[in-house]
Amino acid sequence: MAGSVDSLYETELRHLPLEERMRLLELIARDLRRTGNEETKSILQLRGLGQEIWDGIEAQEYVDEMRAEWDRRC
Q: What is the mean pLDDT of each run of 10 residues along the chain (74 residues)?
């Protein structure tokens, strides 16, 4: 791959006027900034996150307590 990039530069880009090479550099830098910040994440990566908080807590008991608390507030 590096050889093909070097070859591309020598045959196609090196002889461009300075202004055009600078523009090309700006385009590449913009593309790198954009793609470098777009780390694709899956919702599945969150699976199990924080599960230790719920250890020993029964789901239905928790829901019942929350409903009772809500009823007391209203």
A: 84 93 92 75 86 90 93 86
Domain count for the chain, please give it: 1
**Domain limits at 21?**
2-36
Is 17 inside a domain boundary?
yes
Residue at 28 is within a domain: yes
Q: What are phi and psi of 22, to 5 degrees?
A: -65, -40
The amino acid present at 18, given as its one-letter code, is L
Q: Are 69 and 62 in contact (CB under 8 A)?
A: no
Contact (CB, 8 A) for 13 and 21: yes
